[in-house]
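Researcher: Let's do a round of design. I'm pasting the structure tokens now; please hold your answer until I've finished.
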């Protein structure tokens, strides 16, 4: 007997991308403006990459005056971006707790999803308890298997936290000026889109090289900063 329900197309398998963005007061001015532009450009590229086999789901968690699930998991092409505003302190530990809870919840991040990419951007030092949340994130459960990238902006960024967060083959990236935020997000974009085109999107790509010069191994010279 003919049954049209047998001829449905398979649902695209999601590849989650979670941004953990520092929006503390010190991110005011050029930093937050460049961050907004970089995220919007990334979303535009992700939307163009959407295809039948894989869909890119983007979520944004901000930490500043409060911890906010700024964008719940949403298809990149459907994100209606509202520019971030900078205010408050740097409660990074609590943001890591929220991200981990979201990743571990199988209703929110379904088991059929590919390994998520987590991106942490900060220009300061956590003002809450971060040691245990970070250790739990990188060593336990589903979050420990995520692809993890991070960027330090300026001389006050806590390199200890950010270096522990990243997962090889990635290195900690440094922004000597606000404009390099955009270059970093280009690298994030290339890494994610490379996964969507791979035969195995769960595989973490190796080092991604850009034409632009991003400082990967050495932090900005603190003596040169004003």
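Researcher: That's everything. Go ahead.
Model: Designed sequence:
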């Amino acid at each position: 007997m003919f049954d049209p329900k047998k001829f449905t197309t398979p649902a695209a398998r999601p590849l989650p991308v979670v941004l953990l963005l520092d929006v503390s007061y010190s991110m005011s001015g050029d930093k937050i403006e460049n961050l907004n532009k970089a995220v919007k450009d990334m979303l535009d590229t992700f939307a163009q990459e959407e295809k039948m086999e894989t869909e890119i789901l983007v979520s944004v968690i901000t930490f500043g005056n409060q911890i906010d699930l700024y964008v719940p998991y949403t298809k990149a092409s459907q994100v209606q971006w509202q520019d971030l505003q900078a205010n408050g302190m740097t409660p990074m530990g609590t943001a890591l707790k929220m991200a981990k809870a979201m990743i571990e919840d199988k209703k929110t991040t379904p088991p059929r999803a590919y390994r998520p990419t987590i991106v942490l951007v900060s220009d300061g030092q956590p003002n809450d308890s971060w040691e245990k949340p970070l250790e739990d994130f990188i060593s336990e459960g589903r979050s420990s298997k995520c692809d993890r990238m991070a960027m330090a902006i300026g001389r006050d960024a806590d390199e200890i936290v950010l270096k522990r967060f990243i997962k090889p083959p990635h290195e900690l990236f440094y922004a000597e000026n606000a404009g390099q935020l955009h270059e970093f997000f280009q690298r994030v974009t290339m890494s994610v889109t490379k996964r969507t085109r791979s035969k195995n999107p769960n595989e973490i790509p190796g080092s991604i090289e850009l034409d632009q010069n991003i400082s990967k191994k050495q932090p900005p010279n603190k003596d040169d900063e004003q």
